[in-house]
């Protein structure tokens, strides 16, 4: 048995494999395999993915204009009217806009001394109040005194805008729930530098009368969006989201074919929520910020502090343009010639399965692989 094992090792060591060519005339399988490879390579890969084109990435700029008037009942003030200068005049960053949907208001604040909002259920004493102390949760700078906050609690006194903002939860339902009916006009200008091609989402055929009437909900190319529809298409409920706010992404995709025969360059819009929506899963839910309106009463400056909750809409533009390039076509053809190696693999599989009878398949296998013994004795 040891001699047999040793002989097998010597045979394997002294043998080698080389390519043997045989011309197999197989009309059905040969034609099927070659047509399949050509259809896959040319039709599905080159034409579908436009591998014959040179591509360039989009360069973009975006502006947004919100329209709408809200009627709401503010606590302590009654009915008020807010327009776009009131609810959308803040946080107009690059490629984004903000709409206020809910408010917590602290009226008639003046510079002075007042008790800080208690942070703990237990009372504090003078030794807990450090003169000049301040941290990120403070509404002012501590004086070092301990004063009464109400009938049940004592807290540190601070110097700042008094009375300090109370820790209240946002009203439910949201005070500006009517913002669901507001509209926004998004103007997106794009450019593909490699082709010196410029376009915008307000297409040349769109007239002034068209823009006055169109809505994106009814026309996929219309650049005017109702805020409620944007939030709904992102899979959210506007009334629920308006209470604490959040962030919605508006995606504009440009996939442009600049060849004359197949010329097409139109925007495609999609929407999604970008922040964590479950309040019980995050320490700081929604989206909010503070601003103030100032006035002077009897020579003393006063202000009304607003903690504004709302929805920030981030507009993200991406895409590419392609144009026929002879160089790209030659490179693609050269790189895809290797796909024809798949023809042999496909033929071997077809012959052994369905194209021919088992006897013919076995005959093909025997002729394809042939062992040549060495005439010299080992």
Describe this entry's structure for a reader.
Among the domains are: 26-52 and 325-364, no CATH class; 56-107 and 173-295 and 312-324, Sandwich (atp-gated p2x4 ion channel fold). It is 25% helix and 35% strand. It has nine helices and 14 strands. It has helices spanning 2-14, 27-47, 84-87, 208-213, 227-233, 238-244, 326-336, 341-353, 358-368; strands at 53-57, 59-67, 70-74, 78-82, 96-115, 140-148, 154-162, 183-192, 197-200, 224-226, 246-257, 267-273, 288-297, 300-324. A hairpin with a 2-residue loop joins strand 13 and strand 14 (300-324). The two termini are 18 Å apart.
Task: Provide the fold topology.
Elements: H1 2-14, H2 27-47, E1 53-57, E2 59-67, E3 70-74, E4 78-82, H3 84-87, E5 96-115, E6 140-148, E7 154-162, E8 183-192, E9 197-200, H4 208-213, E10 224-226, H5 227-233, H6 238-244, E11 246-257, E12 267-273, E13 288-297, E14 300-324, H7 326-336, H8 341-353, H9 358-368
Parallel strand pairs: 11-14
Antiparallel strand pairs: 1-14, 2-8, 3-4, 5-7, 5-14, 6-7, 8-9, 8-10, 11-12, 13-14
Helix pairs in contact: 2-8
Our measurement of the CA-to-CA distance between the termini, rounded to an integer number of angstroms, reads: 18 Å
Helix content: 10-25%
Mean pLDDT: 81
The biggest beta sheet reads: 8 strands, mixed
Structural class: alpha+beta
Name the features.
378 residues; alpha+beta; atp-gated p2x4 ion channel fold; eight-stranded mixed sheet; 9 helices; 14 strands; 25% helix; elongated; P2X_receptor; ATP binding; glycoprotein
